[in-house]
Design a protein that fits this description.
By secondary structure, the chain is an alpha+beta fold. The chain is built from 25 helices and 20 strands.
Amino acid sequence: MKRVGLKHLRRTIRKTGASFFATAFVVAISICAFVGMQSSSKAIETHAANYFAENNLETFEVSCANGITQEDVDAIAGWDGITAVEGGYTASILLEREHEAILVLARSLLDEINTPMIIEGTLPSSPGEAAIEESLATKEGVSVGDVITLEHDGQLLSDTFTVSAIINLPTYCCANFNDTRGTSEIGLGSNEYFVALTKDAFDSDYFSGCFTAAYAVSSALDGVYYFSSDYAEQEEAYLQSLDGLAQERAQLRYESLTSDAQSEIDDAQAEIDDAQAQLDDAQAEIDDAQAEIDSGEEELLSAQEEIDANEQTLADAQAEYDEQAALLASSLTQLQEQLSAAGMPTDLDQALEQIDGQLSQLEATLGQLQALAQADEASAQMLEQLTASSAALKTLQATILAYQDGERQLESGAQELESSRQQLEDAKAELEAARAELDDAKAEIEDARAEVASKQLELGDAKETLAGARDDASQIALKKWIFSERNSVGDVRAISYVTSMLNVLSLSLSLVFLLVACVISYTSATRMINEQITLVGTQKAMGFTRKEIFRHYLLYNLCCAVFGVVLGTLLAVLAIEPIVLLVFRSTFAMGAIPCVISWPETLLSAVLFLFVFTLVTFVACGSLLKQPATTLLRGGPEAKVRHHRFESWKSFRKLNLYTRSMIKNVLNDKGRALTTIFGVIGSVSLLVICLSLKLGIDNAAVVQLEKYAFGDGRLAVDSSVGSLDTFAETLEEQGVSFLQVHDKLTYFRAKGGDWLSTYILATDQPEALTEYYYLEDIDTKQAVSVPEEGFLVSRKVCELYGLSAGSTVELMNSNGDTVEGTVAGVIESYYSSHLFLSTKAYYESVMGEEADPSVFLFKGDPDAVRSATEGLPGFVTVKEESDFTFNMPELTLVVIVCFIVSLLMTIFVLTNQIVLQINKRARELAVMRINGYTLKETKAYIYKDNIVLTLIGLILGCAVGCIPGYLTVVGVEADARHFVRSINPYALLIAFVCGALFSLVVNIVALRKVNRLNLTNVSSN
């Protein structure tokens, strides 16, 4: 009996081969789309998980605005489950290129964690070597052996590095995702690539002896699949269990910083006090020295006055001396003349001797003559003469003696004069010495004053140091340790984004195929059973049980499902999955991804189709098999002749028999009609889904640039290096209109959520901003302006966290502090990043720091702006506005595959239905030919109703495809990515036209069978 059943099953399959294989193919396509993309998703996740395990990806990393010390790293090593922990450095710096500077993340290589995958070269072994990521090497044309220049603020010990390797790191496993390599205070604040250096290439003093982060590997999550919900739940619970320990370390670090700061303050204060004391002593000495100088200057003045007076006295004495000398000389001359006249020597001493001798003789003679004079007149006369001579001699002697006395007095006066002159010279010498000493004292006091001034400067510096220390101390706050888990590490979450997109696509496409397969299976089973009613009656009359007959049709449908499942699985593994993995190969930076069969999804889809086909079989033949054999042998229960209401309409009656017959044929063969309609619906809706996704992504950039963004690009400047005024003047000279704004990447989160990146654009000219952006409220669709208070945020922010006007969000400023801002409104935005807009004043009040208007929104040729500004100090980059939108070229191939699948579905479904219809109406068609109907009219009898059914299917397919198309677009959106979700008329038009063309081609090809129909071959069949 079993052999008979199997033979009958084979014969049935062979006889209904076209219907069997058409249904199986639809099943295969559904399985192929679902399993192929699910397996691709599984392959990506599996390879990523293995890649992460092989390269020892960090379980989490910890960062803190106060830094991570080596003691902290040692403490983390003792936490529960920690198997490895290392401290490392990261710094946002500039990679200098020929025409611009590129923001990159300098990251230290670790010894055991985040092991690099080496593409080329060898890892850096010295501070002068660097490794670059593969995308940097590819896009910027950097090779191993090249020397690169990194511009920084002192974070590194060198500026130039030799590229020793091209690598990929497990933390940065995706190459085409923006804003995943950290933030910066320079330019637009978003690092584009990473550069890996050795730890000793970083200046530890710059980081105050701390690491910027600690990277840890834990065994707590071993055995849990990395991309499962269990991993996320256990990871959250594990990190929460470590949070208390982390905050204890944060408290200790805070206390250490506070203590160090107080020590610095105390040391600075002690230094100031000591310097002040020394300054006071020095000033006292200066004051004493100045008093002495002042006193010395008074004494010098008095001495000078005395010298001046002595000089005058000396001059007077010299004049008197000269006068006396002159008189004495005159007296000498006269005296010498007298002596000469007296016959005496002119030498006064000799003359005195002679005079003394003569006087002695005269006195003796006079004594004698006095006695004689009285007696002798001659003697008296002689006596008188001698007496006169004696008097003359005495007079002469007195004159000589007077002269000699005058000479002695003159000599004494000369000596006194010389003495006075010597005293005056000595006084002058003493005065000069005193002056020199006073000058030295003045020089010393000037030096002392200079030293005091220097000490005052040092004291001022010390006071500034103290003020700075106090200011630093006042800014020291308890900074919490921040855990970066799986979704916050680099771009690991991008893998989930891609796999989620594939899963959404697989569900959207496979559900369409499942629906079509169910309808085709039902109609095929119903038609086959209706065609075999007499055979079923015969089987029942021969003793076959209802169960055995049902099993035949069930096995038929199950064989169809199994064949479709097997074929679909093979196509998924051999075609779809390799194509998908090839398409996304450039998206990932973790090597070739091997194919993996996702057995749970494969088995689930197989069980689903087996269940559906079982249910379809039961519904299709359950009621019929309940009929007795006699009823079935008569062709089944007599169907009630149903008269349609429209048959009584005059308009219907006016139609010719030919047309009325076609209409009734359609209504009497609802299975074929439904199969045709649903086949077209599946084909067209599939195109609508893929085209809606493709155009939704592509048009997001178009809509953003045409409706919401009016600028042509952004010029980013490093304001710490260059002058913003210089750039502004240059743009003005070029005739480029511009607006300076603060436009930086930072982090935000809703309370309790994960930290995500966002651009904050702040301006002090809200009115001028309307020339560059159209801000549209998502609810009112009306233009809004930047509010004085609060942020305008992009749509995706609110959708992710359920935010609305009045909600609060947390933001992280440049110091790592968490601050709160208010959402003032929600605007439409199709940028690939989240966006916050505010006034400059509100930004500064919320963030607690000054805005940096170092980004120029401009209208003009980006290349011309780059050429005019790239040579200016501080130039970073020029970005075109389109660089901030999202594009996914990989979807182009997906759309092409969908076109092919849609074409194949149309071919199999419509060809099957047309062939079945031709076979069913072969005799009727042959009779039409015999009765004179032309070939064209005979074919029209078949294809006219197909046109109507196809048209219905096209219209319904476009309508049905809109819903899954919308859901697919929304489903593939991730993080900040927002696409055009509205129904795209071009997608509907293209799908409609393509579906119509597919159907037309199938009808033309399939209807060729009518050419071969004649009454002979129909009868033989």
